[in-house]
Write a structure and sequence with these properties.
By secondary structure, the chain is mainly alpha-helical. The protein has one domain. 82% of the residues lie in helices and 0% in strands. The chain is elongated and about 55 Å long.
């Protein structure tokens, strides 16, 4: 394994771990909260709240994909779309008055913001999967 491959592998593994931390915490707290409350509870805001981990993981995946010359385009596009969705849902919530409580949490704006946030969560999971695949490809030399 050359130095570039080793660096790409370290970046891909570290980036994947950082991307999966918010998702793992969301799942663990959902299991614990659901068991104790007796109904399904999930903090789907957690990946957005831990944005700094997702950003660091994405940057490391970009570096790893550039060093390994693999999956550059999917990593960049999925990351940009995810961050665009996160910024967009925050802007819509602020501009509509949803975040300040000026309008009630109901109706089209509420569902639009929730949909964008859930899609962001899904794209973080997809980035984590791409990171695992990138780590495997660099490790095996495929």
């Amino acid at each position: 394994m050359t130095d570039h491959q080793r660096a790409a592998f370290v970046c891909a593994v570290t980036g994947s771990v950082l991307l999966w931390i918010p998702i793992g915490l969301m799942i663990v707290t959902a299991i614990i909260g659901s068991i104790s409350a007796g109904r399904l509870l999930m903090d789907y805001f957690m990946p957005a709240e831990l944005f700094f981990l997702v950003l660091a993981g994405w940057i490391l995946l970009v570096v790893g994909s550039v060093l390994s010359q693999r999956t550059r385009i999917p990593v960049v596009i999925i990351g940009l779309v995810a961050f665009g969705l996160l910024i967009g849902c925050q802007l819509i919530a602020v501009m509509s008055g949803l975040s300040s409580g000026a309008i009630p949490a109901e109706g089209f704006i509420w569902y639009l913001v929730l949909g964008m946030l859930i899609l962001y969560d899904v794209l973080v999971i997809v980035l984590g999967i791409v990171g695992i695949r990138l780590s495997h490809a660099v490790k095996t030399g495929e």
